[in-house]
Amino acid sequence: MATSAIRGDVFTWSGTDKAGRPSKGEIHAVSQAMAKAQLRQQGINPKNVKKKPKPLFGGKGKPIKPADIAVFTRQLATMLKAGVPLVQSFEIVEDGVDKESMRTLITTIRNDVASGSGLAPSLAKHPRQFDELFCSLVGSGEDSGTLEVMLDRVATYKEKTEALKAKIKKAMTYPIAVICVAVIVCAILLIKVVPVFAKTFESFGSELPAFTQFVMNISEFVQEWWVIIFLALVGIFISFREAKLRSVKFSEFLDRLALRIPVVGDIVHDAVIARFSRTLSTTFAAGVPLVDALNSTAGAAGNSVYAKGIRRIRDDVTTGSSLYNAIKATSLFPHMLLQMVSIGEESGALDDMLDKVATHYEEAVDNAVDSLSSLLEPLIMSILGVLVGGLMIAMYLPIFMLGSVI
Q1: Residue burial 297-319, b: 16+ Cβ < 10 Å; e: rest
Q2: How distant, in Å, are the alpha carbons of 191, 228, 236, 237, 313 from that of 232?
Q3: Cα 94 from Cα 214, distance rounded (Å)
Q4: Which residues make Cβ contacts (< 8 Å) with residue 402, sequence separation at least 6?
Q5: What DSSP assignment string belongs to 255-272?
Q6: For the chain, which end, N or C, has fewer CB atoms within 10 Å of the first or last residue's CB respectively?
Q7: pLDDT digits (tens, 9 = 90+) for 36-77
Q8: Do 4 and 30 form a contact (C-beta atoms < 8 A)?
Q9: CA neighbor of 365 nearest in space, from 278, 279, 264
């Protein structure tokens, strides 16, 4: 299908092909008239051509996620390795994208590239999707004439980074979801179910068990103040999020705290080491100078404690220290990483050594997350059983006592 440099809108069409058989599909064009002209050039007799309606929900409203960028990078790298020209590669990738916001982004970049701009400068216009590290690596590939190789490395880096994030997020999602369900169930029981039992207990004319009275007091408090409690929880959540985004000191405090939490701290530590090794390996292999590579690595560390440590490493390397000595001076990195860096510097294969370290710690994170999930599942179910079961026991306890008296 022929395509123009600027695609415009999407039109749906129906008509007949050269053999007179009914046919239909979609086409990109700047206007309805241009869409009909393009179809006639392809030997199609268009009968009905109209602009494709935008989806009511989704589409442009869906934000572009890092996983979308990873998929886009892999597809573009595959097209270039197959020998497809850059602009045509963008067109092929664009045709396979369903998310409207991502399609718009690809179209914008393609138009910039088609007008003579380099790929790296075109990507740099969208810093929310393509960070400094991404643009730096792509720029190195363009300068050295190995853009397809560099995009393949960037795609691998993005895929492994997002896989690591997804693994950790998956481990955290389950307990958070169960806790939310437990809170909702308990709130419903306290607001709707306990008051029904309370009216029944009024007719008993005897003193209620202490546990039952305690639950009823909680129920009365929640019934009276549930709106304020809900607003307070929402306010705490929003305040926490804003403080984390806006306050550097608070964000650093959370990062330090995350490293000290039992079990979770080990996972965070291994994830940071894996990210550090993977980023430094990718940038160093791309021919980026070590000081610049360390600067990019600090931005991708994901933890302020290690980001500061990496900047110290960068400053020491700038003054002439070896990478091994600079890393060792921070006392933040494990012995295995130090030894692999030492071997890599002596053998001239630093990128390969760092890649092996990254793979090791990525696997360590996978195993630790699986173990944590296995540990949390019975623990959370026990907590949920105690909460809900405790409420039900508190409500039925007076009935059991009344039955024993009778």
Answers
A1: bbebbbbbbbbbbbbbbbebbee
A2: 18, 6, 6, 9, 43
A3: 62
A4: 204, 206
A5: HHHHHHSTTHHHHHHHHH
A6: C
A7: 888 888 788 888 888 776 654 444 457 888 888 888 888 888
A8: yes
A9: 264
